[in-house]
Amino acid sequence: MLGGLSLAVSSMLVGAVYGGASASERASGPSNVSTSSFNNSFTIMKQFKGLAAAGHGKIAAIMPDTTTSTRYVEFDQPDITKALQLAGVSSSNYVVQNALGSDATQLTDAQTDISNGATVLLVDPLDSGVGAQIESYAKSRGVKVVDYDRLTLGGSRSYYVSFNNVTVGKLQGEGLVSCVAAWHVKKPQVVVMHGAVTDNNATLFAQGSDSVLNPLFKSGKWVAVAHTAGSWDAPTSETEFQAVLTAHPSVNASLIPNDTNAAAIITYLTSLHVKPKTFPTTGQDASLTGLQDVLSGYQCGTVYKPVYLEAQAAVALALYLRAGVKPPSKLVNGKVQDTTASVSVPSVLETPVWVTTKNMNATIIKQNWVPAAQLCAGSYAADCTAAGITP
Questions:
Q1: How far apart are CA 192 and CA 174, in angstroms?
Q2: For the segment 30-60, what is each residue's pLDDT rounded down to a tens digit?
Q3: HSE on the CB side for 22, CA within 13 Å?
Q4: Residue 29: what pLDDT?
Q5: Paired sense of beta strands 253-255 and 189-192, if any
Q6: So what's the pLDDT on residue 70?
Q7: Residues of 360-370 as b/e, b for ≥16 C-beta within 10 angstroms?
Q8: Strand-by-strand arrangement of the 253-255 sheet
Q9: Residue 233 CB burial class (10 angstroms; 0-12, 13-18, ≥19)
Q10: Which of 142, 207, 230, 383 could form a cystine bridge with 194, CB 3.0-4.6 A?
């Protein structure tokens, strides 16, 4: 009788932990998870505990650098770690690293992780060259790879998880168009800037923004003064911008692909005493500086990509791969073309949001992306008040 009671109590405890799911359901993971299942509470990750227990080996996540965007340190690394922990993966079974801008470090990290028992890698490649090397090495040793944020061209990954990057570029283009009208910029003379040529995301961003801007250039309503070579290095982008502005003083707007590059260029514009809401620029990543540049009227808006969505989706994919379980079709909601390998890569694509002063409170602040007290510090207090943001 006591044995039966103990078994019953044990079953109740297991049911409480795993939400009443059967043993087979726990081992195969939640079947109804989709891209809309994730939010900033991370509660969905607790449903992956059974799947985490059924898997074997370590999960290693390797971010690219700390300079091209502040997001990797501020959001990706802690969010991936949080998702793994809530899914029940012990600290001995995962590692989250940063390659610090070095191809050699990223490759060495991956090789070392595999030697130490990693069976799944989440890799945001510095470039497709090192990404393909990592994936070839991993494949030869039976290790699965998920491309994280950036697609490795010519790679052999199992899945890709990111935001819809063509949509990111389209939002930037549409944001610039709206801003040019709102700021009453006459005869737009535009510098179109690109991200690094080694980053496939930059190609996709450009594809999206070009779909909006090229018809305006072709009609003659707008003038494309220059297209820069492209870089994620802020000083390089600033130098490129200065050269264009020196050669073409009539330039009065710029499509800039991320907040880090935009910040350097906006600093340069303010040194020339350019006034707020007279020279539209764009950005991406919803960095603190980018958001403050939006508030102060030097940046039209920024593309907000809630990294916690991407991080949870990537960890979910890693857990399915680690346990040898095919992820549900509602989670893998798209395909992205690897143009080098001529294959369509099964992908999880989250939806980005264009953020301006009008919706900053309802998105950035409400979702705890940046604390209002930090955003509204010092000279930005009045700007926050005007945007309806209260610290």
A1: 14
A2: 888 999 999 999 999 999 999 999 999 999 9
A3: 3
A4: 84
A5: parallel
A6: 86
A7: bbebbbeeebb
A8: 223-227, 189-192, 253-255
A9: middle
A10: 230
Tell me how many degrees the CA angle 49-110-101 measures, rounded to the nearest 5. Answer: 110
Q: What are phi and psi of 305, to 5 degrees?
A: -120, 95
Phi first, then psi, for residue 146 (nearest 5°) are: -110, 120
The type of residue at 229 is A
Distance CA 293, CA 277 (A): 11
The pTM of this model reads: 0.89
Q: What is the per-residue pLDDT for 6?
A: 41
Strand partners, 189: 223
298 close to 279: Cβ distance less than 8 angstroms: yes
Helix or strand or coil: residue 200?
helix
Q: Where are the alpha helices (DSSP H) in the chain?
A: 2-18, 23-28, 49-54, 71, 77-86, 103-115, 128-140, 165-182, 200-219, 234-247, 259-271, 288-295, 307-322, 360, 372-375, 381-386
Gap between the Cα atoms of 13 and 9, Å rounded: 6
Is the confidence at residue 18, as pLDDT, over 80? no
The answer to whether the beta carbons of residues 55 and 319 sit under 8 Å apart is: yes
Segment 202-249, tens digit of pLDDT: 999 999 999 999 999 999 999 999 999 999 999 999 999 999 999 999
Q: Which tens digit of pLDDT belongs to each residue from 310-346?
A: 999 999 999 999 999 999 999 999 999 999 999 999 9
Structure tokens at 170: 């389209």
Q: How far apart are CA 189 and CA 79, in angstroms?
A: 40
